[in-house]
Amino acid sequence: MAMSEWELIVDREVCLGSGLCVGATKGVFELVDNRSRPTASQCSPDEAVMLAATSCPAGAIRIVEASVGRTIFPDEEG
Ligand code: SF4
Predict the structure, then answer these.
(1) What pLDDT, on the 0 to 100 scale, is given for residue 77?
(2) Band (3; pLDDT cuts 50, 70, 90)
(3) Phi/psi at 68 (nearest 5 deg)?
(4) Backbone angles phi, psi at 75, to 5 degrees
(5) Which residues line ligand 1 (CB under 6 A)?
(6) What is the pTM of this model?
(7) What CATH fold (topology level) applies to the domain 6-71?
């Protein structure tokens, strides 16, 4: 069974505009008005996207399993 698509959410209030996530992924994020945002509403599960989320210095990136609305990162159970 294929993995569920990911929905990406960037909190533009806390994003620092570093552009790390833009550089670490291929066309998944873009800087608009010096803040990151996803370029599409959903993306395929991708190690580079997870790495961008986990290494965002502001903790601004949330990853949600789109089909069930479950947050994959950050881990809310920890
Ligand atoms: S890595 Fe985080 S702080 Fe930097 S641009 Fe992306 S979302 Fe913003």
Answers:
(1) 62
(2) confident
(3) -120, -5
(4) -75, 110
(5) 10, 15-21, 36, 56-58, 60-61
(6) 0.93
(7) Alpha-Beta Plaits (3.30.70)
